[in-house]
Amino acid sequence: MDQAAVRYDPNGLVPVVVQDSVTAQVLMVAYANAEALAATVDTGEAHFWSRSRNELWRKGATSGNTMRVDQMNLDCDADTVLLSVTPTGPACHTGDISCFSPDGAEGFAALERLWSTIAQRARDLPEGSYTAELVRGGVDSPSRKVMEEATEVVLAAKDQDSGGPDRIAEESADLIYHLLVLLAERGTTPRQVIDVLNERAG
Question: Does the pLDDT of residue 104 top 50, yes or no?
Answer without folding.
Answer: no
